[in-house]
Amino acid sequence: MKKYQNEEHTDPRPLVHIDGCSCGTCSNAKPTDPRLELMPDHPDITDGGKPDPNLALDYDPLFSSVLGTGVSRRSLLKAAGLAALSSLLPSAPSFAAKAKFDPVVRIGYIPITDAAALLVAHEMGFFKKEGIDSEAPTLIRGWSPLVEAFASHRFNLTHLLIPVPIWMRYNNKFPVKITAWNHTNGSGLIVHKDSGINSPKDFGGKQFAVPYWYSIHNIVSQKIMRAAGITPVIRPQHAKIASNECNFIVLNPPDMPPALMARQIDGYCVAEPFNALGELKANGKMLRFTGDVWKGHPCCVVVMHEEDTMDPERAAWAQGVHNAIVAAQIHLDGNKKAMAQMLSKDGKKYLPFPAEVVERAMLFYSVADYPKAIQHPGWGQSRINFEGWPYPSATKLVVNDLKKTQLSGDMGFLSKLDADFVAKDLVNYTFVKKALAANPKWKDDLSVPQTGDPYNRVEEFVL
């Protein structure tokens, strides 16, 4: 049986690295896109590769205490370059390497609330309850190095933006499986209070950041703008854009609030708690919650190496992992304030943010506070929900919407993808469904249909 549509599953294709990859082989790397070349002798570099004295980033010193590091203009542009194109995965040797099975759970994560279920499963002993050992999770600052570390088997359990495993499996033939959702909702569109943006039609002529081209943030933001008559484009930041165009760039999540504060960008869409941080520390305001546009949407998904989901000898281990994740999600839903405190730097320090920021990211959501950002209060959604069932209908929507989204790099593989095939081939439903069946409280989450079959739903995407 073929695992990949219209072709045999052969060895993964080697990728070309760009400056800054952590694989250790990048001294000989060549960027695939001249816009991404960085000139190491210049502290401030434009996307076109020329020094620009007007692009020095003056960031609010508060971010040093919040994020633990300062952010320079060079680091912003370097981050954008690293996340943009072919830095997603390492070169052929480490990409193709298979690791000997190790039952110890090794988690890599980005410092966002999307990772909360994995972190809580470790910290609160849910893995241990299943008889599974887990190492202390490793914080990774950007998506590219997280994908690379997972691909090289440094981690055997992580969370990835749902379009990324689509890219990995069907463009690069990497044997990855989605095995559950980490959460639903949990993102928003933040704009600077002085940007003049009060509705999506005001994005014309603006600079807008997303954390990755292959992200729900990119998909949803572009859909919102197109509906308002704004054309998303991908150009160097210094390039001219028309009054009906919005320029999209990629920044690592930690770089977004400082860039907004310094007015290097006009807005961004990203996971929490960087929206809450933008509101509290970067003079940002919430324009729309993504979960108020797409009800109960996926963002980050649980991913595992395919061999860990297909080998019968590992089935009990994989089931235990998912039992722990579902238990953690249910615990999170019922104890958001306590878990926000635990995850924060005032608690166990999994997230480098004070409890005030993490609590806002998980709890602060009402029409009274957001009369414009919340337009569908009847949906009963929260700022972030924790629900693990990977609805096939949502996977299909992501695949079809990716084909309409402005992306960078080789997108030819998307035209060949059939959404129904991807929903069946990319996702392993076995372990999470058994875990959910043993924990019926998951159905109480309002991301789940409250009538009929809880495992099937019609996606609601209303602008």
Automatic annotation (TrEMBL):
Keyword Zinc-finger: no
Gene3D superfamilies per the UniProt record, alphabetical: Periplasmic binding protein-like II
SUPFAM superfamilies in the cross-refs: Periplasmic binding protein-like II
Keyword annotations: Cell inner membrane, Cell membrane, Membrane, Transport
Domain of life: Bacteria
GO CC field: endomembrane system
Subcellular localization: Endomembrane system
Family: Belongs to the CmpA/NrtA family.
Entry protein name: ABC transporter substrate-binding protein
Organism: Sulfuriferula plumbiphila
Lineage, broadest ranks: Bacteria, Pseudomonadati, Pseudomonadota, Betaproteobacteria, Nitrosomonadales
